[in-house]
Amino acid sequence: MPPQEDSSTSQSSPTSPFSEQELGTFQTLVDIVARLRAPGGCPWDREQTHDSLKRNLLEESYEVIEAIDQGDPTVLSEELGDLLVQIAFH
Description:
Elements: H1 20-37, H2 43-47, H3 50-70, H4 73-89
Helix pairs in contact: 3-4
């Protein structure tokens, strides 16, 4: 039986495996994308649609696969970050 975690020192909520700092960082990304796509935001970002972003999403997905094949965790981390930005845009 695995040891129980002391909830008084836990960095994450019972329903999330992520720390509050990690969740805050993700929320920052979501907030930035929302600001870019909002009225008064970046004109290019505002005009994008799911359809217009498909190419970028696919490109980043292939780059993640290439990074996996290379076996380089640093490159994989960077490419997963790029993919996450694309996901946030949708």
